[in-house]
């Protein structure tokens, strides 16, 4: 048990901010990380330690214990070790989080490993020449997983470590010159101009494929629907001796579960994973934000007779602190399921907290108080059965991919894919295309961007991502229209696009085809009608006649709607009591569907054959 420091002792013991020359000699001393309790201050790390330990509250929810540490053990050169320490110390003062500081430490480690391979560079220190050589080295480095050269984004982080070294450590003998006067790490990494613009504007994260998402939703929703039964079986076993599988199986069989304890435990894990899946899918939250949700961590608000649900958590990514996310009702339901799921673990946590308090284990007290109330508790079997928050890495790398294995999908599901998938679905819905899952997203009938823009307590970075995704989706649709291989039909605007894309003269007026398309389409508004795309920005809509309207465009994305309409006409044609006017209406409707589908490249004869085969039971 560490001795607690009083307020006076603590202030006297803090590492001083303004003694860089002591740092150069390895003589800087003082308290660096600590936990504040009611009784005083419990020290976790001193500046002079070769491993700095941070309290759980300084990391994100679900961060592994090992990632709350920054180690300097592998810096065998004392001056290099002191430079890295002083750099990280200053970054901490500037408010950088543990993960960012670990990245800086790793990038400085890579730099010094390179330095130590050359006696000349080691002797000359950080100069413009040595920095130039390091840039060449970084430009030739390959990603260990892919074998490809490092991306500009990764390179710029490696090179920024040198800028930080110069900024904070210019009083160390090793640091002689600015690494690149009148330049920057971004410029050295070629992370400027079009490369930077493309990195910002072009989404790098994959969207979960629609067929995979449908299968995952169906599979995981089946667990949500069975949650009460599964949790009831789980609760029957509470109080039984640990690992007493014989008694457990006997209780389960008596109460109707004949698949054994092991299978029940597997089903319960899949229930938990399914709940996390639905929170990620329906909110756009990051995994650490999901794992930071507390029991009853949502509120309800009624506006104009409609219910709105807001999920509460903490976002560390953009230092926003307490934040809210709009969600459908199913999200609150799975939060309630998880709250019930972790009740026994919460009870054990409270017992562990009493024990920690009785022995004065302040670090454990702090960790348990930070963990308490989470909907994502787990037992750490490799740490003497301690109660902790689920690891974000474990969810991302193992549990979510396991859901894909359950549906026999090859897709490599990852937590960060949900945020862009969410933004993409919102973007489509705001264009009028609700796509799938609309029964769970009733609030998407309103403008999601308007809701986020009107409430500063909501995740504003997610709002910006939705706006970016909408622009991306619009551009994707419009660029398709100008592709020579893309069939489109419609009125005046569709014919105008067909004329432009055939014209070599139109392209010659612009630097490239991309510039031409952006110029022609930048002021064209679009919204989905199901049957096509409306480019009219006023109320002059013909009502479901997009292929005839001067503002309408019909493309391959609309084929399924037209096939459904054609099948409806075929069904009507089978009726014998619709009269002559009804038969004429069906004939006109059929001709309309055949014309559009043929233009879009669909085989209307095959649609008819399939219809009659089903109708005749063959």
Write a compact overview of the structure shown.
The chain has helices at residues 7-13, 20-24, 78-93, 98-115, 119-124, 128-140, 152-169, 185-188, 193-201, 210-225, 227-236, 245-254, 260-283, 287-291, 329-341, 343-359, 362-371, 392-406, 416-430, 448-454, 460-481, 492-502, 504-508, 513-521, 559-573, 579-599, 604-615, and strands at residues 31-36, 41-46, 51-53, 69-71, 298-303, 306-315, 321-327, 377-380, 386-389, 489-490, 527-528, 533-534, 552-554. It is of the alpha+beta class and 618 residues long.
Describe this structure in words.
It contains 27 helices and 13 strands. It has helices spanning 7-13, 20-24, 78-93, 98-115, 119-124, 128-140, 152-169, 185-188, 193-201, 210-225, 227-236, 245-254, 260-283, 287-291, 329-341, 343-359, 362-371, 392-406, 416-430, 448-454, 460-481, 492-502, 504-508, 513-521, 559-573, 579-599, 604-615, and strands spanning 31-36, 41-46, 51-53, 69-71, 298-303, 306-315, 321-327, 377-380, 386-389, 489-490, 527-528, 533-534, 552-554. The strands form 5 sheets. A 4-stranded antiparallel beta sheet has the order 10-13-12-11, with helices on one face. Helix 6 (128-140) runs antiparallel to helix 7. Keywords: DNA integration, DNA recombination, DNA-binding.
User: How large is the share of residues in beta strands?
Assistant: 5-15%
What coarse outline follows from CA principal-axis ratios?
Answer: flat
- Counting helices, strands and paired strands, the structural category is alpha+beta
List the total number of helices.
27
Mean pLDDT score: 88
Spans where pLDDT lies below 50 across 5 or more residues:
442-446
- Count of DSSP E strands? 13
Widest sheet: strand ordering: 10-13-12-11
Radius of gyration: 31 Å
Q: Distance N terminus to C terminus?
A: 79 Å
Range of helix content:
40-55%
How is the biggest beta sheet arranged?
4 strands, antiparallel
């Amino acid at each position: 048990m560490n001795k607690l420091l009083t307020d006076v002792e603590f202030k006297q013991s803090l590492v001083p901010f303004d003694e860089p020359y002591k740092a150069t000699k390895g003589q800087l001393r003082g308290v660096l990380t600590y936990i504040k309790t009611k009784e005083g201050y419990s020290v976790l790390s001193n500046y002079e330690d070769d491993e700095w330990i941070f309290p759980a509250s300084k990391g994100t929810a679900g961060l592994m214990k090992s990632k709350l540490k920054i180690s300097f053990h592998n810096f065998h050169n004392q001056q290099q070790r002191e430079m890295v320490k002083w750099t990280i110390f200053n970054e901490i003062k500037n408010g950088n989080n543990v993960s960012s500081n670990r990245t800086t430490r790793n990038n400085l480690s890579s730099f010094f490993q390179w330095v130590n391979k050359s006696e000349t560079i080691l002797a000359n220190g950080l100069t413009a020449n040595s920095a130039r050589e390091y840039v060449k080295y970084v430009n030739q480095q390959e990603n260990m997983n892919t074998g490809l050269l490092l991306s500009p984004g990764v390179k710029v982080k490696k090179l920024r470590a040198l800028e930080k070294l110069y900024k904070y450590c210019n009083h160390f003998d090793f640091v002689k010159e600015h690494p690149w006067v009148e330049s920057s790490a971004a410029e050295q990494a070629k992370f400027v101009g079009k490369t930077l613009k493309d990195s910002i504007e072009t989404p790098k994260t994959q969207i979960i494929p629609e067929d995979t998402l449908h299968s995952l939703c169906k599979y995981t929703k089946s667990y949500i629907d069975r949650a009460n039964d599964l949790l009831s079986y789980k609760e029957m076993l509470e109080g039984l001796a640990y690992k007493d599988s014989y008694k457990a199986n006997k209780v389960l069989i008596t109460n109707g579960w004949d698949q054994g304890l092991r299978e029940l435990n597997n089903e319960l894990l899949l229930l938990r994973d399914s709940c996390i899946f639905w929170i990620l899918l329906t909110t756009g939250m990051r995994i650490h934000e999901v794992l930071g949700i507390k029991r009853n961590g949502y509120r309800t608000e009624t506006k104009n007779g409609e219910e709105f649900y807001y999920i509460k958590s903490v976002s560390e990514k953009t230092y926003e602190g307490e934040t809210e996310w709009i969600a459908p009702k199913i999200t609150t339901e799975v939060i309630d399921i998880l709250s019930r799921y972790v009740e026994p673990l919460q009870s054990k946590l409270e017992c562990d907290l009493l024990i920690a308090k009785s022995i004065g284990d302040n670090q454990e007290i702090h960790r348990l108080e930070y963990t308490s109330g989470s909907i994502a508790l787990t037992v750490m079997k490799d740490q003497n059965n301690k109660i902790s928050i689920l690891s974000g890495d474990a969810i991302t790398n193992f549990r979510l991919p396991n859901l894909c294995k359950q549906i026999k999908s090859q897709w490599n599901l990852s937590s960060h894919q949900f945020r862009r998938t969410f933004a993409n679905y919102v973007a489509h819905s705001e264009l009028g295309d609700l796509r799938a899952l609309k029964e769970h997203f009733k609030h998407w009938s309103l403008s999601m961007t308007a809701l986020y823009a009107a409430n500063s307590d909501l995740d504003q970075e997610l709002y910006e991502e939705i706006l970016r995704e909408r622009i991306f989706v619009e551009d994707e649709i419009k660029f398709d229209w100008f592709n020579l291989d893309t069939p489109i039909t419609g009125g005046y605007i569709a014919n105008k696009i067909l004329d432009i894309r055939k014209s070599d003269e139109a392209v010659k007026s612009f630097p490239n085809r991309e510039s031409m398309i952006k110029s022609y389409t930048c002021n064209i508004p679009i919204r989905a009608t199901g049957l096509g795309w409306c480019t009219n920005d006023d109320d002059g809509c013909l009502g479901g006649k997009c292929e005839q309207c001067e503002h309408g465009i019909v493309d391959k994305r609309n084929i399924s709607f037209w096939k459904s309409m054609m099948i409806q006409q075929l069904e009507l044609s089978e009726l014998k009591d619709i009269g002559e006017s009804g038969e004429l209406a069906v004939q006109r409707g059929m001709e309309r569907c055949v014309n559009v589908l043929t233009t879009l490249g669909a085989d209307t004869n095959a649609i008819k054959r399939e219809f009659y085969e089903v109708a005749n039971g063959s």
